[in-house]
Design goal:
heterodimer, A: alpha+beta, two-stranded antiparallel sheet, 8 helices, 8 strands, B: alpha/beta, 7-stranded mixed beta sheet, 6-stranded mixed barrel, 38 strands
């Protein structure tokens, strides 16, 4: 079941890329914007805002899938899913930078970088350090529109239901009650994921 | 130890298998096909394809690659339920990995000939029919097995549309990748490299552009293991096809002697694979074996005999060429001719060539390139233990507890042996590397001792001293050797501190290494040119045998003194007596035993030892040697002080060069004879571990070229010695070898058909000898030698402050006459740069890529500098592959080892001047 996590509402994303900057800063050595800019190699963001040809933005980040394809296809066991927290983590010491996870990931959010002479994958680490301190993940903190939300799944979907209820309320413009295309495509992905889950061999 | 066996029931049949194996491996061994894309037999896999589902009673459906065989398992491998699950898994796999299915699902697949003229009327961009692996693809195999497959239930798959990445020898096309991970597993777990990466877009640090890095930048060794592992067309060699027949032969490059399977179709090489049955390489190859064999098909091969008229060569006929040679050679006396044989030729040919020199020309002036690589091993080891070959087998690497690698860059020069050392290290064996360069093995070694070049004796004596002082010597064994007590008191007289300071190494590292070597037994020593190519080469070898004898590390499995031979058949050429002082079977020319050979040959053999290769050129320079017959060697590039060699070659009255290419040496010849390469003749090679292996022809010789033995026999016949050379085929020569060389006596062509045999093999029922001296020493007691710690190597001084050391690179071989003809390998020619430490470069004001002049006391060459961390301060490194950077213009031919006459090629004092632009 979903635990605490970052959830997306693409319909709210305006493509400001604040989350990208916050993520890169969070993963810099100094964790300060002005100092991080000067760092070499430049700190990398793990969340990527991409826009469709129609200029509709989508904040792509690791969704810490329940049956992650990156874990399935990782040949060295570097990519793992922590059953307790539900976070898909990368063990850099095992990573050989082969690129399999990147090819397998349906969201395309695994990047690669050089760590010394070694090529390793980089991906969202769920900001576990921040969460332990009781702070929201960097991208969520940076998001001004509510496209990125953090919390227990139940609470977030409840928020969404309330939002929907507000939209369909007779006191609102009925035309606003629509399901955006991005949500549809996300749903498609999620349904293919659940199909995958079915494929797992049942003992 | 016998492994426990467990009982299984597979498809209703009761079987017994070894415990602790994966079900998929077990079923494969039983000959039951389990569809799988991601599992490598015996190695492992990612388990990502999910096709290997089988049903185990009690467990239900399980992946065979993740389940261990256990006692009493009842396994169903092929039922309707399993089939439908496999089809589901295939559906998921193909849709997730976006592997194109257009052709796979096409009903006309078997009859389709032209993908451009698609029967479905589609425009095929990706699919089986446009993929080079069509017919050899594992997915096709799985589909065939699972058919009929309900393709209409499959989702529409949009191929990835990624660009094809061109690498030097193969292409990477991720449109066909099914993310099985076999390439990565084979690279990481089989080859211990970890270079292969799938598809990476990296951001360029400077421009911010996305680039796809080449494997070349990822430290790829291009061994081709991943190509064999790839189940689809994602990794493929553009020229490879499915062969009509496969010929098993032996790789013609280094002394490892790997088995190669060459696939032939319409007279052309269409595939090259490692021979799984070969005990040497077990199916693995390095870049030279995998991609470097195509030189035999080069257009530059010599096709007809050439005669020099004026300054240019004119083609001539065999008859004319042979009568010319016979007539000219009979003019000269025995002391006026010299013959160079080749370690690239077969045993049979070397035998014929040395017999030709001794019987027809009546001279012992016969030598070959072993002079320049392991003659000091031969003299050193025969003085200490008697014998001049690897005492143990390559396989023993995995059996010893401690491995010492000294003066050998094994992973580059003997890649397959290097791989075994890496595997041994991973199995937890101790690895001690002694090398001034930071070679690949040094990075993984337990102890790496970075000594000054040319101070090996001091270091080895220091190790002996530590072992003696700590009381770790195997006294019982050492007492049985000559000179032990004298050696012990000699060690006492030396100071450890001084020895270590000569070698420039920290005392505690030497202490640690010695203690490991002496206590973690069996310990083996591997060495190569870094030991032998010194002015004190013989002393170096003696110091190594001291160390082995002191600890009793000899005559046991996993121990021994193991010289790694450089050429594919240098061991065989020495066995066959292509040496000035030794007859076939290492019989000294001036010993009593000579009579045995004389009896076989039916004629007398001159007893005075002949001239070595370096001496021959000196005598040629002074006009004493007037004619030379050089077979398959390129001394104008490979021999020391090449400007002198060139002068000597010019000075000859008559020079015949017999080669497969127009080499630099051949340009000085009066006559150039075209020889057949290893690809076009029968014969045997003897590899570094004394394994006699059979080579088989897989193509016809180009033009009028002929095997070397045939040419030599023809000349001998013309000169009236037909009675001594009545051979019709190599097998007849081999049967004479069997009579002349006792250690080959039990080896027959018939036995070799089923794999190589390690000599000594005295009788036909003898299985061969994997390690020597198991039951005592054949030539009397082994002895210790009190070797002086100073090497007498050329010293650097104010004028010549750098030490130049030479070596090979993985991608090239010797004078690159072979490798430079191979497309792809040419891309790695940047190895001709001078490797230099960054600090040295800074102090000279040299930047990476700058042109410099390298000057020694003998000559100078121009080259480019590449900065590297591999070489220590004060040392520079150059390869000797390339004719345009003739490093041997710098080396000396007058500073020879006094015993073996090996020239010093590893320590050359040089100065480096930046070239003005």
């Amino acid at each position: 079941m979903f635990g605490m996590g970052v959830f997306l509402d693409p319909s709210k994303c305006i493509g400001c890329k604040h989350c990208e900057i916050a993520c890169a800063v969070e993963h810099s050595k100094e964790k300060e914007l002005l100092k991080a800019i000067a760092e070499k190699p430049a700190p990398k963001n793990r969340i990527l805002v991409e826009a469709s040809p129609e200029s509709i933005p989508f904040p792509a980040k690791c969704n810490h899938c329940e049956t992650p394809l990156c874990v399935r296809f990782c040949p060295t066991g570097a990519m793992r899913r922590d059953e307790r927290s539900g976070i898909v983590t990368l063990d850099e010491s095992l990573c050989v930078g082969c690129g399999m996870c990147g090819l397998a990931c349906p969201f395309g959010v695994i990047l690669y970088t050089l760590k010394g002479e070694k090529r390793v994958a980089i991906k969202c680490d769920g900001c576990t350090e921040r969460i332990e301190k009781g702070v929201k993940p960097a991208c969520v903190e940076a998001c001004k529109t509510g496209a990125l939300m953090f919390g227990p799944y139940e609470e977030i979907v409840k928020e969404k239901r309330i939002e929907m209820a507000r939209r369909v309320s007779p006191y609102q413009d009925v035309e606003a009650c629509y399901i955006p295309d991005e949500v549809l495509s996300l749903r498609k992905i999620l349904s293919s994921m659940s199909e995958l889950k079915k494929r797992e061999v049942q003992p | 130890m016998e492994k426990k066996r467990v009982n299984l029931t597979v498809d209703g049949k009761k079987v017994q298998v070894e415990e602790g194996k994966l079900l998929i491996d077990v079923l494969e061994e039983l000959g039951i096909y389990v569809p799988s894309l991601c599992h490598i037999q015996g190695v492992g896999g990612t388990g990502s394809c999910g096709l290997c589902i089988v049903e185990v009673k009690g467990l239900g459906l399980v992946k065979a690659c993740e389940t261990m065989a256990e006692e009493g398992m009842v396994i169903e491998t092929n039922s309707e339920k399993i089939r439908s699950e496999r089809i589901e898994a295939l559906k998921v796999l193909l849709s997730v990995t976006k592997h194109p299915i257009i052709c796979l699902s096409c009903p006309y697949r078997s009859e389709c000939e032209d993908p451009l003229n698609c029967k479905l009327g589609l425009k095929i961009k990706f699919g089986c029919k446009v993929c080079a692996k069509d017919g050899a693809c594992k997915i096709q195999e799985v589909v065939e097995f699972l058919s009929p497959i309900p393709w209409d239930e499959f989702p529409e798959i949009e191929p990835r549309g990624l660009p094809v990445i061109h690498e030097p020898f193969f292409v990477r096309d991720y449109n066909y990748c099914v993310l099985c991970g076999r390439c990565i597993i084979s690279c990481k777990d089989v080859r211990k490299e970890g270079a292969a990466f799938v598809y990476l877009e990296l951001e360029d640090q400077e421009t911010g552009k996305k680039v796809v890095p080449s494997l070349k930048e990822g430290n790829c060794k291009f061994c081709g293991e991943c190509l064999d592992a790839c189940p689809t067309g994602a990794l493929r060699v553009p020229w490879e096809e499915i062969p009509d027949k496969e010929v098993k032969t032996i790789c013609p490059y280094c002394g490892t002697g790997c088995g190669v399977k060459v696939g032939i179709k319409n007279g052309r090489i269409v595939s090259i694979k490692g021979d799984q049955d070969s005990p040497v390489n077990e199916g693995e190859l390095c870049v030279k074996g995998r991609f470097g064999i195509s030189f035999v098909e080069s257009e530059e091969r010599l096709k007809e005999p050439l005669i020099k008229v004026g300054d240019s060569f004119k083609p001539t006929t065999w008859d004319e060429a042979i009568s010319e040679i016979a007539e000219k050679l009979s003019r000269y006396g025995p002391d006026e001719v010299g013959v160079l044989s080749s370690a690239k030729c077969t045993n049979e040919e070397n035998y014929v060539i040395q017999k030709f020199a001794r019987v027809v020309l009546g001279t012992n002036n016969i030598d070959h390139c072993a002079r320049l690589c392991h003659s000091s091993t031969a003299s050193g080891l025969s003085m200490s233990i008697g014998g001049s070959a690897m005492t143990n087998s390559i396989e023993d690497v995995l059996k010893s507890k401690t491995i010492v690698v000294i003066g050998s860059n094994t992973t580059e020069n003997h890649p397959i042996i290097g791989l075994k050392i890496k595997r041994a290290k991973e199995m937890g064996k101790n690895l001690i590397v002694i090398n001034p360069m930071e070679i690949e093995l040094a990075k993984i070694a337990d102890i790496w001792i970075r000594l000054k070049p040319g101070t090996d004796v001091a270091l080895l004596l220091a190790m002996c001293k530590v072992i003696c002082d700590e009381g770790l010597a195997d006294e019982e064994f050492a007492e049985k050797c000559n000179n032990f007590h004298e050696f012990k008191s000699y060690l006492k007289s030396l100071s450890l501190e001084k020895l270590c300071s000569i070698a420039g190494v920290p005392e505690d590292a030497v202490r640690k290494a010695s203690i490991i070597y002496a206590t973690e037994k069996p310990s083996s020593i591997f060495f190569a040119m870094g030991i032998t190519q010194h002015i004190g080469g013989t002393n170096n070898v003696l110091a190594i045998s001291n160390l082995a004898l002191l600890t009793g590390n000899i005559g046991k499995e996993g121990s021994g003194i193991n010289p790694l031979r450089g050429q594919n058949n240098v061991q065989g050429a020495c066995d066959m007596g292509a040496l000035p002082d030794l007859l076939p079977g290492y019989i000294k020319t001036n010993s009593e035993l000579k009579q045995d050979i004389e009896k076989v040959w039916g004629t007398e053999i001159p007893s005075e030892p002949g001239l070595t290769v370096v001496e021959m050129f000196e005598k040629a320079l002074s006009g004493k040697i007037k004619a030379m017959y050089i077979i398959g060697e390129n001394p104008a590039v490979s021999d020391p002080d090449t400007s002198k060699v060139e002068k000597a070659l010019r000075n000859l009255d008559f020079l015949v060069v017999q080669d497969i290419f127009m080499s630099q040496t051949a340009s000085f010849a009066k006559l150039v004879l075209p020889a057949a390469s290893f690809a076009e003749k029968h014969g045997t090679f003897t590899n570094t571990e004394r394994r006699v292996q059979m080579i088989r022809p897989f193509k016809d010789p180009p033009g009028f070229s002929k095997p070397d033995w045939e040419i030599v026999c023809d000349i001998a016949k013309k000169m009236g010695f037909g009675w001594a050379f009545p051979f019709k085929d190599p097998e007849e020569i081999f049967s004479e070898i069997r009579r002349a060389v006792p250690s080959y006596r039990g080896i027959t062509y018939e036995r070799l058909e089923n794999g190589g045999i390690q000599w000594p093999c005295p009788s036909e029922d003898h299985p061969g000898t994997p390690f020597l001296f198991a039951s005592g020493f054949s030539q009397g007691k082994p002895s210790f030698h009190n070797v002086p710690p100073e090497s007498g190597d050329e010293s650097q001084d104010g004028d010549y402050p750098f030490i130049l050391t030479t070596g090979r690179s993985l991608f090239h071989f010797h004078t690159s006459t072979m490798t430079s003809k191979v497309e792809g390998i040419q891309e790695f020619s940047d190895a001709s740069t001078l490797e230099m430490n960054q600090e040295d470069a800074r102090s000279l004001g040299i930047k990476d890529g700058d042109a410099v002049m390298v000057e020694s006391r003998r000559g100078s060459i121009e080259t480019k500098v590449s900065l590297s961390k591999r070489v220590p301060k004060g040392v520079v490194f150059l390869t000797f592959h390339f004719p345009d950077v003739r490093v041997n213009r710098l080396s000396s031919s007058s500073r020879l080892d006094p015993i073996s006459r090996i020239p010093n090629l590893k320590v050359i004092a040089v100065r480096i001047k930046p070239k003005r632009r």
